[in-house]
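We emphasize that the prediction below concerns an isolated chain of 293 residues; any contacts that depend on oligomerization or on bound cofactors are therefore not represented. The input was used exactly as deposited, without trimming of termini.
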Amino acid sequence: MSKYKGPDEWYGWLVEQSRTDHIYDLIHNYLPHNFSPVDGDFILLAFEDLPQILQVISGPYYNASRKQVLIIEGVKYVVIGNDYLTEYLEAAKQMKIVDDQGNSYIQLLFTMPMYEQEAEDEENEYQANKIQAHPDDVLKLCWDLIVAGKNKEHALAYALVGEGFLIDRQQDLAQSGGAIGEVIRISIGFHIISTAYAWNDRFTEAVKCDERYLLKPYLWSHMEKAIMGYLEMLMIKKQSHYLEYLFSHQEFKKHFFVHYETHMSIINPNFEWTKMREIVPILNRINNSNNYR
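Result of the prediction step, given as a token string:
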């Protein structure tokens, strides 16, 4: 069988068949950059997984999508037609490459990956080895998950990789000097890492990242919306003591005064607002943020 001529063809087809950005998580987490599947129908389901799959995929949809059965190295697979991928791609949790005498397929799996739960250092090393993307890509993928409010464990894995890269870049910049634009880029990266840590309740790591950028006044005008979003994450996570510490810095309190009043209104129901029009939308976002709790 022939293969797709390049990644744009099969990649674009999977994206076209998908309803949401979930497809990007699957592709970037589980497929190498140089992957090229067999031409034609290239999505597989393990036959033994069908009882579980049919709990999330309707029988009629499965029957319409089923093309043929393949036996690869003793394992029985069902080939799914390329015109019937949408429901499978939305429900899938993982992808796995299956090779058959030089022909590559993608198997969809519908269970969350089981990560080793040993010492934290070993877990960090495992996640770092698992992700083979360029560090800038890791930060973008991390931010995409944060914005979508899903797969916080994946966002944490990206954060663990991205932090080391940013620390090295910041140290190089301190030695060589650099334009403010690069300083801002690095600081935005630390903001992404801090947000991922806070989302995963790893506040000690978040605070350490914050020390690298958050209380530096020359960055605030460049990162205002990002910092506001981070303060809201801290409010969602009920980190009132840490917020009190941040707002104890008068310049910071003045610059982010609306968020200061929002914080005060949360911890003190009798607090008198002066910025009600601005505070109400923030409170609404915080109260409707179940994905981040």
